[in-house]
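Figure 2 data, in text form.
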Amino acid sequence: MDTPIDWIAIAARLNPDGRAFIGGRRVAAADGAAFDCISPIDGRKVADLARGRAADIDLAVRGARAAFEDGRWAHRPPRERKQVLQRLADLMRIHGDELAALETLDMGKPVALSRAVDVNSSANCVRWYAEAVDKLYDEIAPTPRTALALITREPMGVVGAIVPWNYPMLMTCWKIAPALASGNSVVLKPSEKASLTALRLAELALEAGIPEDVFNVVPGYGHEAGQALALHNDVDCIGFTGSTRTGKAIVQYAGQSNLKRVFTELGGKSPFVVLADADVEAAARACAGSIFYNQGESCNAPSRAIVEKSVLGAFTERVAALAQNYQPGDPWAKGTAMGAIVDRTQLNTVLGYIAAGVDDGAQLVAGGTPAREETGGFYVTPTVFAGVTPEMKIAREEIFGPVLSVLSADHAAQAVAIANASRYGLAASIWSRDIDRALTVARALRAGTVHVNSYDDDDITVPFGGYKESGNGRDKSLHAFEKYTELKTTWIRLPGGLAG
């Protein structure tokens, strides 16, 4: 029988180092500036984070460029890069409890989920790309016999990665694993709201054998460190996950600088379509489990349930009842299903949307209030609105919190029209016992991932990304290699025939 993990004791032993990781070592910001890392669990300060700015980004990029040009990593055979990344995956599992505790301390999710999901998925991601890198083949074009045309993929060079605070470790690995496996150097800017696991991963990467300057982490604010990275003329591409507003700014920065490639995975307002012949109980459980998971802080969260009228009441009643199973609790405690919102600013944003829903005339049927205020942390109860109409603010804008809007539809065609009437297109779901009907609706939904009679089913082998203002990039799967490599054609002229 497994011994229970004493997470309180592990958390008490943590002494997070918030300094940047540049050139294979921890360093303060060039100007000595720092800012507070506040835990959303109880509002206390847990570290000083280096406030990286343009000078720090430039130092990291210059080191990354030098490392790329001298080939200390890029020129290593794929087999060797594979072995190093496998060691990194092993170290992530060895230090799994520490990484999980850092993740929870930093952004508030239940530690049991940090350990079982985030750590394991992150290590699996690194291992999967390690295993893939020596199994990718280049191409030979079908040219005339007088030529041989080689089509090869080469590392991009210096990759800038900017990741969000909701899945800090996993989003980091989705970016760095294919980028490093391809032979690139990386400069990572983690979210100022959750930087601790990214900084610790950089130390583990060095221990695993990734050379100095190949993987650098510069914490800081988006308008300072993030902007400097996106504007830097020696960065070859940016992989970004975050808000649509910031994604648009990064594309503009790329145009203002060296026209670097920009791959974005942005916001979402994902529709969850339930038709009259659906298994309502299964649909309600899947919807509640996904919208309240990670405190609703998921870009693909099914925040719009669009339900045919004949089952609207049953679905709404059931999902509101299930919300009671996700009341926020102590993130360190066993059995806690929902933790803290990442910071007070985001908590106020969520509460503002809840107030807007009430003001617009939606019916609040569950939650909608702050919770655990005595702890000093940032918590909100799982919230369900009924009677929502498509023009309401809570039906149009991304909330990034545990708030579900339930809308009604007369028939499947209207449900699809409501679902697609959004500037976002990240994920969607269709529920029906009629598989032909479900697949017809799935084809009509404009989203990068469409689930049929499920939600949040996932695997590293499939791409993740969206349509429309949900971005143009794809994380995960072999397709991620396309983001971090350049395609080169080498044309070789051959003799016309055999010599006599």
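Caption note: The longest strand covers residues 147-155.
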